[in-house]
Amino acid sequence: MTEHEHVRVAVIGSGFGGLGAAVRLRREGITDFVVLERAGGVGGTWRDNSYPGCACDVPSHLYSFSFAPNPDWPRTFSGQEHIRAYLEHVTDVFGLRPHLRLDSEVKRMTWDGEKLRWDIETSSGSLSADLVVSATGPLSDPRIPDIPGIDSFPGKVFHSARWDHDYDLRGKRVAMVGTGASAIQIVPAVQPEVARLTLFQRTPPWVMPRVDRAISGLERGLHRVLPFTAQARRGVLWGIRELQVQAFTKRPDELGLIERLARRNMARAVKDPELRAKLTPDYRIGCKRILLSNAYYPALTRPNVDVVASGLDRIEGSTLVAADGSTAEVDAIVFGTGFHVTDMPIADRVVGAEGRTLAEAWQGGMSALRGASAAGFPNWMTIIGPNTGLGNSSMILMIESQLNYMADFVRQLGVLGGRVALDARPAAVADWNRKVQERMKRTVWNTGGCTSWYLDAQGRNTTVWPGTTTEFRTATRRLDLGEYEVLRAPGPRPAGGAGRDDDAGQERPGEQGRRQGERPGNQTKAEAGA
C-alpha cells in the first residue's frame, strides 16, 4: 500500500459481499477502489470454514451471482471447496486481483468531517477513501463462550471456523459443543474416525432431509450450451422459496406440516425413544434455522457417540462438566458455537461524524436505513447489514439488492458533484427500523418460542428480513435523497465536480428541493438544524 494512498471507494472484505461490490463498481465504470482483506486470500466465510463436511444448505444454482452463473456446479448442494473455487473464478474473470489488498486487516476507520473522507488504518498501512463499503459479513468472527476452566484444559481447543488441520482427530476423545449448521456437518464427518464423540447440546435443532445429488454431465453440458436452462433452474429454486416466506413471516401455524415431516425424519433414523426425546425440539420449527442433513441423526445413533442434552458448564482439567452434572473425559474440544452476529467486532473500529464508534451508536441494537446506512456515518455502507438476513433462501439475492442500492448511492454522489457526502437522517433510520420491527412481531423467529442468534442482547431481532427477497429488491432499487442529509466540504461549490460520473450535473426531478437539506460537512447535526 502506497504512502498516503487515497481511493474513491474502499471495500472491506472479499467474500460474496465484497467481491460483488467490486464487480458492481467496475460495471459502473469505477476503477479507483481497493478491496481490503485481512487474510491472505479471497473467499470470506467460505475461506475460513474448511471443517470436515463443510457445505452450503442453499442449492448451488441459487447460491451464486446472477451476473456470474456457473453451469458446472458438481452437486445440487455444493461443498466449501467448490464455492471457494467459484469465488476465485469470479475474482479472475472480472479482473479484481489488481484491486485486492491482502493481509490488510482494518484496525480503525475515522470520518474526517473537514475533508469528507474516511481515514483508514490497516495492518499493512494507511489510506483514505471517499466512500467505504463494509462487507465483513456477520459470520466472520467466531464466538467461543467463556467457559470456566477452559484455560487449564490440557488438550486441543478450536472453533469450527478456525479448524486445525494439523491436529489429527483419529483415535481421540472429542467433544463437539453446539448443534448448529456447522456441528451437524462436522459430527457425521468425524464420527467414524474418533474413539469417542460427545455432543454437548444446549438446544436441539430441527433437521430435514438434504436432497443432494451429483449434477450429471448432461445437465452441466445443457447449462453451458443453453444458459437459459440454468436461469430457469435458478428461477424455480427462487420461486419456491418466495412462496414459503409467508409461513415464516405471517402465518407460523402453517409450518405444522413441515414440523411433522421433520419428526418423521428423526423417527426413521433414531429408534431409541430416549435419544429421540433428547433430540426433539420444544419450539416451533423455523424459529431457529432449519438444518439439512441425511447423516446427522444416523451418526448420533452410533456406539461411539454420546449426546449430552445440556450445555457445557465448566472444565476441570480434561473433564468436561455439563449443566446437568454429567461428565466426559476428552482430548479435544471443537466449538460450533456461532459468530458475533449482533455485536460485530468491525463496529468497534468505525468512528463516525460525532466521534462515536458504530458499536456505541448501536448500543441499543443494530439499525441501518434499508440495511445499509447508519445515521452519523456519512458515505459508509454495509453489505448484509441489520435485518437483511434470511431464514429460508439465498443471501446472494439480498447481497445483489444491496449492490443495486450501493450503485445508486455512488451515482447520486456523482450527480451532486464536488466533495460531497450523504448521511442517513436519524428520522429515516428510525422510521425504517420501526416498520421492520413491527413486521417482525408476528414472524416465527419472534413467536416460535426459541432463543436464537437472530436476537440481540435486548431480545430484538436485528438480523432477519421479515419479508420476501422481492420486497427487499424493490425497497433498495433506488436511493431516496430525501432520506439523507447532504454534506459539502467547506468552500465554494465547484462548477464542474471532479471525479463525477458521466451524468454528473444532470439533476433528477425533486433534487433541487432536496438540496435545501445540504449542510457543510464540518457542522454538527444540531448546528445544521437536523
Description:
The chain has helices spanning 16-27, 45-48, 80-93, 183-190, 217-225, 227-249, 256-269, 273-279, 296-300, 358-361, 395-416, 426-440, 444-447, 469-475, 511-514; strands at residues 5-12, 33-36, 100-101, 106-112, 117-122, 125-134, 156-159, 173-177, 196-200, 207-208, 291-292, 305-308, 312-316, 319-322, 327-329, 332-335, 350-351, 380-382, 420-424, 484-488, 519-520. The chain has 530 residues and is α/β, with parallel strands linked by helices. It has two domains: 6-141 and 340-488, FAD/NAD(P)-binding domain; 150-335, FAD/NAD(P)-binding domain (3-Layer(bba) Sandwich). Strands 1, 2, 3, 4, 5, 6, 17 and 18 form an eight-stranded mixed sheet that branches. The chain has a five-stranded parallel sheet with strand order 7-16-8-9-12, with helices on one face. The protein has a three-stranded antiparallel sheet with strand order 13-14-15, with no helix packed on it. β4 (106-112) and β5 (117-122) form a beta hairpin. The chain is globular and about 75 Å long.
Task: Summarize this structure as a short list of keywords or feature phrases.
530 residues, alpha/beta, FAD/NAD(P)-binding domain, 2 domains, 8-stranded mixed β-sheet, 5-stranded parallel β-sheet, globular, disordered C terminus
